[in-house]
Amino acid sequence: MAGFVNPAIIVLSLLFFTSAIMAIAMGIAWSQFGRRRYVLSWTVAYCISVLQWVLNGAGLLFGSPLLISMAALAIMASATLTFVGVCQRAGASVPCKWLLAPAMPCALASVYAAFTKNAPLEGMASPAYAGIAMLCSALRLWPRGRRFSAPELAFFLLLLLFAAFEACLVGSAALNWGHPRENMDSYRAILALGLPSIYVGTCVSAVLVVAGDLAHELRRRMQRDGLTDVLNRLGLEEAAMRAIANAKRHGRPLALVICDLDGFKALNDSYGHIAGDAALRGFARLVSIATRRGDIVGRLGGDEFGLLLVDTDSTAAAEVMERIRVEFGCLSLPQAPDARLQASFGIADLHEDDQCLDDMVARADNALYQAKKEGKDRVSIWRSAA
């Protein structure tokens, strides 16, 4: 017995410290970076894992069926919270009924096995549920309408590997059905050799997923205008580089629209900056609704906006802008019910020698100047000099 306990305690110590580090890391990520629900679920999952390894080690040392059964239930709770966190991250509901179906029999079997010292059943019950939870987590992690990020792919593969590992444990325990605990050497070998590396790998990939999400959110905030939630100048320029390159590669049209709110300074002076901010948000919302997925909307600064309409020439862009112009004129601001909202639009097509956004901005600005010169509240298309 001593020859089994010492290696087991070493493995459990490694798993305990890994879980503790993960609980701390996830807790910091949750408290300092947006308090996302899925990060909290994973934090609690690793906290339960810390308790689980303590219970497991104490149960082995003292031969306590109660502690061993509690450890098995902790395994199941931790696996459940891992799956719940994946669902929360995906914005999906948690299928509680589907979780209860395998959870209840596995939990009862784990407790029964611990108190009756049925080693094969003990080796099958909680690993079976953990394997199901890991497999479901991997399937739920699959992205919808986009590709895996590198951290997501690593986490996905390790969750599948974890599920396969738990299946191997269940199979090994089943082969020893009816045999005494001393005959479970193959089960213990699989557990000792496979669990530490798979568990640590899954933990590291989970941290990378959270770090990737935080980095994505940071990039999004850096590229977004805080008032209107459309792209800022930096975000618009980066998106424009990709849009221009793609349009030139495939020989597709691309139109740039520069929009300017007419009389914006007078609106601020007459009704205050709250009304001005409401006008900016309202205009950005109208533009975002009127444009298609794939079109690019950004705020260049002040009351000036830039739009890139993909697969669209200046004539088609003008029709879209005319609808936006009319709708904006009908917009009512609670802070300025008597204010008349107007906007002018300048449009330019992509040219073969255009390399970046600024190459198109000059022409669109000239068209905008023409719209202002002709009386404002209108749409103007840039035309080359004859």
TrEMBL record:
Catalytic reaction list: 2 GTP = 3',3'-c-di-GMP + 2 diphosphate
Pfam families named in the record: GGDEF (PF00990)
> EC number(s) in its UniProt entry?
2.7.7.65
Q: Which residues form the GGDEF domain?
A: 252-384
| Keyword Transmembrane on entry | yes
Q: Does the keyword Transmembrane helix apply?
A: yes
Q: Which segment of the chain is annotated as a signal peptide?
A: none
The EC class name is transferase
| A GO term for molecular function | diguanylate cyclase activity
Q: Which UniProt keywords apply?
A: Membrane, Transmembrane, Transmembrane helix
Q: Which residues cross the membrane?
A: 6-31, 38-55, 67-86, 155-177, 189-214
PANTHER family documented for this protein: DIGUANYLATE CYCLASE DGCM-RELATED, REGULATORY COMPONENTS OF SENSORY TRANSDUCTION SYSTEM
Protein name (database record): diguanylate cyclase
User: Which organism encodes this protein?
Assistant: Sphingobium cloacae
